[in-house]
Design goal:
By secondary structure, the chain is mainly α. The protein has two helices and no strands. It folds into two domains: about 45 residues; about 35 residues. It is flat. The two termini are about 30 Å apart. The relative contact order is 0.05.
Amino acid sequence: MNSLRKKILVLALFVLGMVFFQEVMAQCPMCKIAAESNMENGGESGNGLNTGILYMFAAPYLIVGFIAFMWWRNKKNFDNGDYIDLLDE
């Protein structure tokens, strides 16, 4: 991918992120108010909401960590010569 295409892709992703970011942030106060009022009234929904937020928070890090591990493992195997040369077939 050439440099111009990369710059256009990054710019497009940035613009899309900024467009949708305000909508996402607008929902945070509503969730906070709903959880606080539920907990004040003796409900348990706030705990479930907090657990769900932690799962959503951890998922991207686990995905990136898995991809980084697979990349590292395959690079290590490639550097050691433990690979199948598909061009010889």
